[in-house]
Structures are given as C-alpha cells and as structure tokens.
Amino acid sequence: MNIKDDLKLISGIGDKTINKLNKIGLHNIEDFIFHYPFRYEIFKNRLKIKDLISGEKCIFLARVELVDSKRSYIKRANFTKAILKDDSGKIEAIWFNNSWVKDSLIQGELYYFIGDITESYGNIEIVNPLYRKYNSKKEIKEDLINPIYRTTKGLKQNILRNISKKVFENDLFINDYLPKDILEKHNYQDLYSSLKNLHYPKNLDLLEESKKRLKFDELFFIQLLNERKKSKVQNRKSYKIDFFENKTKLFINSLGFDLTEKQKKVAWQILKDLEKNNPANRLLEGDVGSGKTVVFLISVLNVFLSGYNSAIMVPTSILAIQHYKKICNLFLNKEYIGDVKIALLTGSDSMLNNEKISRKKLEEKIKNNEVNIIIGTHTLVQENIKIQNLAFVVIDEQHRFGVKQRHLLTHENINMDNEIYPHFLSVTATPIPRTLALAFYGDLDISILDEKPLNRKPIETSIVTELKEVYLFLLKELKQKRQIYIICPLIEETEEESIFDLEIKSAKSVFEHFKKLKPFEKFNIELLHGKLKPSEKNKIEEEFSNGKINILISTSVVEVGVDVPNANTILILGAEKFGLASMYQLRGRVGRSDTQSYCFLYTKSKSEKVLNRLNSIIKAKSSFELAEMDMKNRGAGDMYGLIQSGHIPELNIATIFDVNIMLEAKKEAEDLVKRDPNLKNLKDLKIKIETKENEIHPE
Ligand code: ADP
Ligand code: MG
C-alpha cells in the first residue's frame, strides 16, 4: 500500500464511512495516519477485583457467579445483573437495556471484563462493561490503550480504530523526512514506528516515545518555516510612517478616557516600528478588555496622516462590523483628520463611510487607492484583493483564525503589487509568556499589555451547582436593564455527547428551556451560534449591541472580542467542558464598563480536578497568570484543552508547554538553515517543507 492511496482501497469501508471520513478532511492514507488521536482511554491491565479503583477504567478476569435479568418499573428499563468473582473478591456488574447479556454470559465461566469502575453506596460496581470469554491462548497481558480521535456525527471511534488497524497491518512505506543525524542524536524512533505506536500503542512507554518524536516533528517544521521566512524577509523595504504628535493627542482626547501607562508604552513601540523602512512584525498580547484596539488605531491614524493605507483583519464578520462602526465613529467628520475613506469588506457585506456600496465598486475603489482604512475578514487575502499603498496590516484576534487562514495572513500574501511590504501587527489575547512566544514566533517582536483600564471592577465570579438562585439573580439584573449572556458548550445535542454526558446542555435546548420559563416571559431572548447565516448572526449581534435583546444564549462564538458594555452577567453552563483559556475569554465579555459584573460557572461535576481548574479562573489576576496555573495544574501531557481553545492552532500534538522539545527543534532548525539553506542534501525534508510553504502561500 502507498500512503497516497485513497481510503476507499481499504477493504470493508463503505461509501457512507468514506463520506464521513472526507467530511473531517481524511481522504487518503496519509491524511489518516497524520490524523492523530487527541487522547487515549487507558484500561489498567488485569487488576484483581479487590484492587479495582473507583473512577478508573479497568480490565479484570472473573468468573460469572450469577446472572439475572429484571425489569425496573421505576426506570422503565430492563437490566441485567451479574455477580463476578475472582480469588480476591466480588463485584456486581449491571447492564441496562441489554437483555441479551443474560443469554450470552454463561454462569461458571471465566471472562475478561472491561469498563469504568464506579462506586454506589460504598460498594464498587461496573456498569455496562464489555466482556470477552477467557481464552488461555489470547491472554490480555498489557494495558489496553484505546486511541480517541476527533470525529464527526455517526463516525464511531471503533470504525476509526479499525481503519487504523487495517492501515498498519498492511505493508506501508513511509519516508522518514527527518535527517538521520537528528534522529540519532535525540534517539528518536523512525517515523513509521512513531505513527504506528501513536495509533496503536502497545504500552504507555512506547506511546510516550512516539509522541515525543512527533511533537519534535511538528515544532521542528514550525521553526524551519520561521527560519526560512526570516532569512527571506530580512532585506525587504516598507513605507516609513511619520508621527503626528498634535493630531495623535487630539485623537486620544476624543476617546473619552485616559490611556493607561501600558497602553501608551505599547502604542509608542508600534509607532517606532512604523518609522523604520523595513517591515515590522510585532505581536501584541493583552488580556481581553485591556484596550488593544485604541493602541493600534493610533498607528492606523498616523499611517493615514502619512498618506498611506491600513488593513485590519479579524476572524469573524461580527467583529469586523463592530470595529468598522467604532472606527467610523472615531475617524469620520473630524476636522483634524480630514477626508478619510473607511471600508468594510466581509464575505457578505461591503460598505464605505457608513454607506452600503456594491462589492465590485468597493474593490475598484480599493484598487484605485481611494480607500484608506479597510476592515475585513480573511476574504481580504483569500480573494487576493490588492490594496494600493498598503503600509500597515493589523491581524486582530489572531489566535481565532484557522490554521490556513493564519498562514495566509503574512507579509508575502498581501499587497504584492510592488516590492514594498506592509508593517505587520498581530493582536492576540493568548497569554503566552514572553519567552515561550519568542521561541514559537521566533521572527516576531513582542508587546504585552498586562494592565486593565483603571475604572474596571473585578468580575465577581462563582462556581454554582444549582440554577434556581442564579435565575433569581438574572431577573434582578434584567430589571435594572442589564443584559445577560448564557453560554453553552454545544449548539445541539450530538449522539456521542448525550450518551457520554447527560449533563451537557446544548444552546438550542437551553433556548427552548428559557422560552418556557414564566418569569423570563417579558424579556427578549435570542439564540446565537456558529451555524447561523452571517446575516442572521449580524442581526442578532446588532440587536444585542443595541439593547433590544436582553438575554443572548450562545455557544462560544461570542468568545471573539464582542464588546457590549451593558452586558454585565454571564452564565456559563457545563463549565467543565471549556478550556480554561476559552472560559477566561468568555468571561471577558462582561466587565466592560464601570458597573459591577458577574460570572457564574455552572457545573454538575464533583471532581476535585475540575473544581480546582474552575477555581483558578477565580484566582488568576491576568490571563498570563492563568496560563501558568493551568500549566501547573494539569502537568504536561494533558494540555489538549488549551490547544483546543485556540492556542497555537497549528499544533496538533505538541503544546506550548513542550518547551524543551521546542528549544531543541529551534536549535536544529537554525543549524540546518545555516548549514544547508536550500536543503540540497535532504530531498524528503525539502519536499515536505515546500509543501507546507505552498499550503501557506498558494499561488
Ligand atoms: P481588547 O483588548 O479586548 O480588544 P478593547 O480594545 O475592545 O479590548 O477595549 C475594551 C473596552 O475598553 C472598549 O470599550 C474600549 O473603548 C475601552 N477602553 C480601552 N482603553 C481604555 C482606558 N484606558 N480606559 C477606559 N476604557 C478603555
Ligand atoms: Mg479586541
């Protein structure tokens, strides 16, 4: 078999499965083997019954003493019970609605049982365990490690595991693109073994070893891309922007608040960048609500006053519209600014100075240098719109862009009409400590805004396990004309989630629920989620902004920089389902004015780990502090939440906490680019890296 072979060629995979695989981006074998499991279900090998641990997944060998099926009239369900016994003790097993279990288990025989051990009234039991008849030739000798993949509705983990089994049962040749000396130096497994062990781990040690190698790969590629990019960009030219001190002062005075010291400092750093005539590349990090927008608008203003143009790109049209309005308010009809043309361009909207304009006309105006400030989504680069005299590009909420989009948003992809490159500023609320950020984004300068505007009261945050009192509280705030966010982890119940976690609430069902609650009858409640059409989303957003909507029930789509200062309370349902960083961002939707604001984290979980995690949100004074706590709390290896919540999205298996591997990767990449910049002696690596570069800059 060849890694470029279509998954269709694997025996026993039907068209339906193929469609679902395609849906999650898996077409050929290569796609599949690089679709890494994101976590593992680990069944501890062969414990004695007396050693079984509540809360763990276990395998044990036991004899069936008694099996019986009953009908429970209370639960209206059939259930089957069995007593399982080994020489150390007994345990009760229960299966719900599985009447065939009674006929398939034979009393007196030995079976392996696999499942979660739970505790009920002081006794351990096992619910719905899987089982397999004991066969001395097929003894289970090792831990059972089941990979869990990202998947889609109807594509079960079992199917994915079967495919991976078939893939690796076949003779598969995978070229190892890493240089041999690097492999040897770090004692890494070859690529084939690493991949096989990752999908199909024999034991935990091998799994760890293969993870390490694959993390290295990922980080090495990032570093190699950086190094190559750096060597290319170094000698480029950009426009020189002057600083208009008096007009900048007038602008700041028009804001209605004083800048914090940190805002001043960072705004100055950016202005200094723009004074140079080679392209700046800076990352501005700052907590939600730390006031990053005005900081870059000061530069946008000076760019305009210098006679050049700026583009501001944001990940969603909601945010684009919001920025657009704000900027129009601040810049239009100001004598000291003069005649400025401000445009909005998203997939669905095109506007110029607060008036609708056809997309075609707007594009023409942009081409003819008749637009000074453009606010848009990634459509701006995707559709290759050439902006004349472009001196400054801001990527706001950079961490929320998808991997591909983010790679599109680089110097090379914008304004390639002439040889002059724009200055570049990426803005993010991702709290990566400076050292880590430097290592990850080796080619960037970094500014950190870790101070909030003074008039802000801390958000009063509490963990709640009952909703009644929260509802009363919400009513009280509503009566004072405040607005409320209710956040749910899902849009609608999916098959898998509702089986595994009955507590999970979808935005749709919460919406239905609230519609029926009498005390909330007179309030306007709306539902917002990512699957709505952009026009519907915009409408809801706008109505929430205008105060027409009292309660906004939403998924985490509102995480992205939405700014409605009158909203002062947020209730997060199923709080344990959110990554810490993501939750911190969500909470930042409130606390945007000088009134007291509140955040309720609702969870049914009693797990100490979960509660600790939620508590760190309460304790952390800034997202930077939170990142550190998160790192300590979770330890290495369990950082999926952070990545999932949008941190460093190009990382699939490595995390920002794999600092050591990352430093090694950086060093190797630097050495390699020095030694062999064109990768003449490393054909496989060259192909791989150029493919990545082409993905980033598709011609
Ligand atoms: P973020 O850093 O999350 O992008 P924004 O730039 O949206 O934050 O700012 C959040 C809110 O705080 C906005 O309404 C903004 O006008 C306001 N703001 C910004 N700086 C200050 C300040 N120094 N004092 C008071 N309010 C400020
Ligand atoms: Mg912002």
How would you characterize this protein structure?
This protein starts with 14 loop residues before the first helix and ends with a helix. With 699 residues, it is α/β, with parallel strands linked by helices. Helix 7 (204-233) packs across helix 24 and helix 21 (608-619) runs antiparallel to helix 22 (623-634). The longest helix has 30 residues, at 204-233. Strand 12 and strand 13 (355-356) form a beta hairpin. The strands form four sheets. It has a nine-stranded mixed sheet with strand order 13-12-11-14-10-15-16-9-17, with helices on both faces. Strands 18-23-22-19-21-20 form a six-stranded parallel sheet, with helices on both faces. The chain is 38% helix and 19% strand. Magnesium ion is lined by residues 292-293, 396, 561.
In short:
The chain has 699 residues and is of the alpha/beta class. It is built from 25 helices and 23 strands.
